[in-house]
Amino acid sequence: MIYYDKVSKVYPDKTVALDDVSFGIEPKEFVTIVGHSGAGKTTLMKMLIAEEWPTDGAVFFESTNIHKLSKKEMSKLRRRIGMVFQDYRLIPTKTVYENIAFAMEAIGRNDAEVASDVPHVLELVDLGHKIWNFPRELSGGERQRVAIARAIVTQPDIIIADEPTGNLDPVNTYEIIRILQKINELGRTVLLTTHNKGVVDTIGGRVITMERGKIVKDDRSGRYIL
Ligand code: ADP
C-alpha cells in the first residue's frame, strides 16, 4: 500500500535526515517507528503527505508516486490520511464538538452528518461527556483523544500519529496507545512515531528502528534496541 523506495532527504543546510530508506507498509498494519530525536522520523512521515520532497528515491501510495500527484490528486490522498501531532493542534476558541465538526465541514460534510458522527467518534475515544468543553478545560490526554477523534472522523485509511504521547504521563500514554490499537482493529493502518521505550514495549507489533536517517532494524516482534 505504501512503499518507500531508496528515499534520501538532505535539507538545504546539508543535514541528512533520511539516508537510503526502503520499506513497505501493508494495509491495516500497525507500525511503530522508533528512534532518538533527530533520527528522521518526522521527515519520514512528512514525505507521505508531500510536506517534504525526497532528494533521492520515491514514495509510493498504491503504486502512485506521491510526489508526482497533481495538487487536486494530493488533496484527495490527504483525505485518506488522518494526522495526530504531539502538540494536539486543536483550535482553542472552539469547543470539542466544533473542533471535530470543523474537520468534517472542511471536506464538505453537512450539518446532519456532523451532528450524528461527532458524538459517535467521541464515544470511541471515551470523551462523550466533554463534547461542549473547550480544549483549555481538558487534560493533555483528553486533548489528544479529541485530536484522534478529529483525525478519524473523516474515516481515513491511514492514521499518522507523530509522537502523540510526547507530552503525556505514562497513564495517558497507555490510554492513547490503547485507542490507536482499537482504531487499528477497526481496520485502519496506523503509523506511530515515538522515542519512548515504554511505548514500544506496550505495543508489540512491528517496530522500525531509525538511527541517523537510516533504518537499522525492522522487527515484526517489536523489540527496542537503542
Ligand atoms: P525526528 O522526528 O526523528 O526527531 P526529524 O525528521 O525531525 O527527526 O529530523 C531529522 C534531522 O533533520 C534532524 O537533524 C533535524 O534537525 C533535521 N531537520 C528536520 N527538519 C529540518 C529542516 N526543515 N531543515 C533542516 N534540517 C531539518
Ordered list of secondary-structure elements with their pairings:
Blueprint: E1 2-10, E2 16-25, E3 30-34, H1 41-48, E4 56-61, E5 64-65, H2 71-78, E6 81-85, H3 96-106, H4 111-124, H5 140-152, E7 158-162, H6 170-185, E8 189-194, H7 197-203, E9 206-211, E10 214-219
Which properties best describe this structure?
alpha/beta, six-stranded mixed β-sheet, four-stranded antiparallel β-sheet, binds adenosine-5'-diphosphate
Q: Helical element count? A: 7
How many structurally independent domains? 1
Structural class: alpha/beta
- Stated plainly, the CATH topology is called Rossmann fold
- Uncertain stretches: none
- Widest sheet: strand order? 6-7-8-3-9-10
Q: What about the largest sheet?
A: 6 strands, mixed
Taken in chain order, the helices and strands follow as EEEHEEHEHHHEHEHEE
The first-to-last residue Cα distance is 28 Å
Principal-axes geometry comes out as: globular
CATH architecture: 3-Layer(aba) Sandwich
Approximate helicity band: 25-40%
Strand proportion, as a percent range, falls in 25-35%
User: What is the CATH superfamily label?
Assistant: P-loop containing nucleotide triphosphate hydrolases
Number of strands: 10
**Rg measurement, Å:** 17 Å
* CATH class assignment: Alpha Beta
